[in-house]
Amino acid sequence: MTSSAEERALLVPEGLAGERVDTGLARMFGISRSRAADLLGQGLVRLDGSAAAKSERLVPGSLLEVTLPATTDPLEVRAEAVEGITIIHDDESIVVIDKPVGVAVHPSMGWTGPTVVGHLAAAGYRIATSGAPERQGIVQRLDVGTSGVMVICKGERAYSVLKNAFRHRTVDKVYHALVQGHPDPWEGTIDAPIGRATKSDWKFTVRDDGKHSVTHYSTLEAHRFASLLEVHLETGRTHQIRVHMAALKHPCVGDLTYGADPTLARRLGLERQWLHAVRLGFEHPDTGQYVEYESEYPPDLAAALETIRDEH
Question: Higher-confidence residue: 108 or 220?
Fold first, then answer.
């Protein structure tokens, strides 16, 4: 949903005599003061034909003109090829990808960066039309800061079957996480409800009134400063692994949002949490046969792990 730029003009009324341009602009055109200041800063406001400064004073009868830029729906899917997205598998019903860090699965409020659905649109993929417009065909999500394997549905039947499989927890979702310290016990299950943190809309925490959340983990490698875990998700809450490991006081290395050591992150050259979706297994929606797809560690995570392995 995109609208073209709008030109508007009004004569300054007597009641705004002596007011600053930014104040008058907001009142005359029914916009916020901050939007008025932004328009002035972009040179989109003219007073009697000349570019207006926000601190200028208004004179009754003067002509105040403003160009209101085209507005774009933040949830609109923009077809845009994204460097780093790899197609692991592609057939009539599904496409399995390796998602790099820094890419959202679909558009959302406040996100202006690249998306998986935008990349697939640019590459000419036809995606299932079930679901909200900005996330059609999406049956699972990975955080912007989490890389790895994920599946998107191209057909309606595949969408229905896999959505059901995720809902009934018959999909095998396997992650590797490098966490600080050494979890005790070395393998176990975290069964702790997760909800939004009270002081932040974008953070989550373990809380009694949260949603049922279960994470299974086992230690693959134990090193001096960190442990490499294999994690199986039974449920799929936002930030689930990050929140559960932080609750154990073993946050993912590099996950500064959830209490990781910034000094260790810097030493390892990490700018995000060490968390990667390594395997995804499910019954194929067409054949019913069990299929499994894998993703290797990306360079930043592989390098950080090698550094940890070398520190004795």
Answer: 220
Query: Known catalytic residue: 143?
Result: yes
**Domain 6-68 - what CATH class?**
alpha beta
Return phi, psi of residue 167, to 5°: -65, -40
On the question of pLDDT at 105 being above 70, the answer is yes
Check whether 171 has a pLDDT greater than 90.
yes
The arithmetic mean of pLDDT across residues 223-245, rounded, is 96
Q: Using CB atoms within 10 Å of the CB of residue 195, give its burial: 0 to 12 exposed, 13 to 18 middle, 19+ buried.
A: middle
Top CATH class, 169-312: alpha beta
Q: Which of 187, 253, 241 is nearest to 214 (CA)?
A: 241
**Arithmetic mean of pLDDT over the chain:** 92
Residue 201: pLDDT over 80:
no
Q: Which helix (H) or strand (E) holds 309?
A: helix 299-310
CB 194 within 8 A of CB 204: yes
What is the C-alpha to C-alpha distance for residues 240 and 190, in angstroms, rounded to an integer?
10
Residues 282, 158: contact at Cβ < 8 Å?
A: no
Task: Considering the candidates 22, 98, 143, 300, report the single residue annotated as catalytic.
Answer: 143
The architecture that CATH gives domain 79-168 is: 2-Layer Sandwich (3.30)
DSSP per-residue codes, 170-213 = -SEEEEEEEEES--SSSEEEEE--EEE-TT-TT-EEE-TTSB--
d(CA 118, CA 109): 15
